[in-house]
Amino acid sequence: MRTLEQTTQEVLELATKHFQVPLGSLTPTDDFFKKLGIDSLQTLEMLSRLENHFGIELPDYEVQGVSDFKTLAERIQSRL
Amino acid sequence: MLDLSKYQSVGSALRDALDQFGSEVCLIEADREREKERLTYRDFKNRTHPLARTLQDAGFAPGDRASIIMTNQSKWLISAYAIFFTGGVIVPLDYKLTPDEHWQLLKHSGASVLVTEYPIWRQLCPSTGRVNAQNVRTVLVTEAPPNADLAGAQRWEEFRAEGEPAFVPRKRSDTASIVYSSGTGGRPKGCMMTHENYLEQCVALTSLYPFWPGVRYLSILPTNHAIDFMVGFFGPFTCGAAIVHLRTLRPEYVREAFPKYKITYVSLVPLVLKNLQKGLQARFDALPPGKRRIFDALVIINKSLTKGRPRLGISRLLLKQVHAAFGSELRTIIVGGAFTEPQTLQFFYDLGIPVANGYGLTEAGTAITVNDLKPFRADTVGKPLPGMEVRILNPASDGVGEVAVRSKTVMAGYLNDPELTAETIVDGWLMTGDLGKFDPAGHLQLSGRKKNMIVTEEGKNIYPEDIESVFEGLLVKEFCIFAANYIWPKRSMIGEQLVLVLHLETGQQFGDELRREINIRNQRLLNYKRLHGLVLFEADFPRTASLKIKRNVLAEHLATLDSSSVILPL
Question: How far is Cα B32 from Cα B17, in angstroms, rounded to an integer?
Fold first, then answer.
């Protein structure tokens, strides 16, 4: 079983790859809308990638109002 | 042409439709690649009546209000019809609001019943706002896990009684729904929509974009939104068409839904339409040079053949693969909720996929103008719908003035706010606060706003007053939020932004700490409500005798400043 720290790290790594930003440029508390300049639709695209990686189904409502990687990782962790 | 003249209410029109189209499919619900449900009109009726009966048994009386906070799904529509059947008024709320905002609007609406989904209820329960909305006495929760703590709510699935419910007739002038166009942080704007508003709008819209049994409408915009309520519920139901709901709105599942369910119509906000355009353009750009030349030639031929009007058969033949990706049955993409860039509209039209753009307000009963495609005009928001009188008030030398509307589709007024109603509806004319002019062909062209608000590409209306509470207590002398386009009109309705105007204390410097504090508070707002810049203003804000900021006077002062240098990034 992953720890929350491991999950958070994996979320950051996947977001780094998905949005093709420099390694280490994202931190858990970053607001991904602002930091990555993405919209809600691009966030949904990232979720599918996270679902495949963690082998879970993450309903759209779980990410309603979430805008930082840490909270996103917590939502994933609760479904692992 | 659809004739609803014999009906007095939304409920009575729907009741007849359920009987008339009994064996036709009305709802398909899918979650990812799984189809969860497929209901005929008869099934729909059988699901609704026990719910309506239980509501009546529980004392839900004609004119009582029931709120729905749900994502797009079959239970949304079943609940809405049960409420109409019993003579109730629906209060559809945006499920994306925060729990505190939900409770605030639930209190304002006076709803006695709330229908919601378990995950939303789970977030609503711990919110402190709940204590203020004691008017909500019955809560029905869908899809709750078997052992879930419902915190006083009841299971929607078990809230059903034996026996036929009694249909409650309503008058055309009665309120059918209360739809909030804004006001979650400030002055709630609950638009009281009458049964007549919906019946008239339905006839007007379907005269241009008809539904019939076999048509499939993909419902993506939230059903609480005026557009989806009309073209993703009431319109298709009165004509025997089917609605497809997706529980997951990831782009890949939306893409799959078009060919899988042979979609005929879909409504999108400009943001999603642009995303589709981006995806298609990338695929065209990746074609090998030879294929790309052939493709470009076919697009040119299609453009020339569809210049006067859409010719779907020819376009589907010429650009077969593009249309196959959309299921080969797509007739029109309806786009609304915000202004769409002409090049995006043209892109789709050139591929033989007509995009019906338009212009509307919740207060006007959804759409005021729609592009009738005769011929297609990407540079306008179309002509007024049948039954709509549209005037340009006090036009300037270039013909631009405030757009005013008079029609049977205009709301009865704002709930509990006669003062705001009187300001908004003057001598029967709805003052839209939007600026525009008519061209010689009778098409409306929008060019800015007279009102202090923005509309995002996701179709969200944001009023500055509604988000100011987030910045209360900021360590400055005073502050105010404005729509930049209101102060410095740019004659465009794209990329609108909000700015924070700060007046610092004497001797106070704008430093990193204050900037950090503003950014922290800004992040508390939902992403589409966030500020984009700030302006440092060096004088006292003009105020009324009761010390309220005179926003219009302050805006006039700000307008004398150069926006290109005065707005600082956050």
Answer: 30
pTM here? 0.85
Mean pLDDT of B96-111: 93
Q: What is the mean pLDDT of chain B?
A: 92
Fold of B454-569: GMP Synthetase; Chain A, domain 3 (3.30.300)
> Under an 8 A CB cutoff, do B527 and A40 touch?
yes
**Of B304, B302, B300, nearest in space to B320 by CA:** B302
Does A41 contact B251 at a Cβ distance shorter than 8 Å? yes
Contact with chain A for residue B250, Cβ under 8 A? yes
Asked if B406 and B415 touch (Cβ cutoff 8 Å), the reply is: no
Kindly provide the ipTM of the predicted complex, given to two decimals: 0.79
What is the CATH number assigned to the segment(s) A4-77? 1.10.1200.10
Q: Which of B98, B250, B272 shows the shortest C-beta gap to A65? A: B98
Q: Is B355 helix (H, G, I), strand (E, B) or coil?
A: strand
Give the separation between CA B531 and CA B138, rounded to whole angstroms. 38
Q: What is the mean pLDDT of chain A?
A: 86
Q: Is residue A57 predicted with pLDDT exceeding 90?
A: no
Which of B251, B202, B217, B255 lies closest to B331, judged by CA? Answer: B217
Q: How confident is the model over B247-270, as a mean pLDDT?
A: 91
Gap between the Cα atoms of B114 and B159, Å rounded: 13
**Is A65's CB within 8 Å of B96's CB?**
yes
Nearest-Cα residue of chain B relative to residue A47 = B250
Q: Which of residues 370 through 429 in chain B touch A, CB cutoff 8 A? A: none
Contact, B38 vs B62, CB < 8 A?
no
Nearest to B523 among A61, A64, A67 (CB): A67
Q: How far is CA B93 from CA B180, B448, B476, in A?
A: 7, 28, 35
CATH of B10-261, one of 3.40.50.2300, 3.40.50.12780, 3.40.50.720, 3.40.1010.20: 3.40.50.12780
Every domain of chain B and the residues it spans:
10-261, 454-569
Contacts of A61 in chain B (CB under 8 A): 71, 95, 117, 119-120
Among partner residues B248, B275, B530, which is closest to A41 by beta-carbon distance? B275
Q: What is the DSSP string of B304-347?
A: HHTSSS--HHHHHHHTHHHHHHTTS---EEEE-SS---HHHHHH
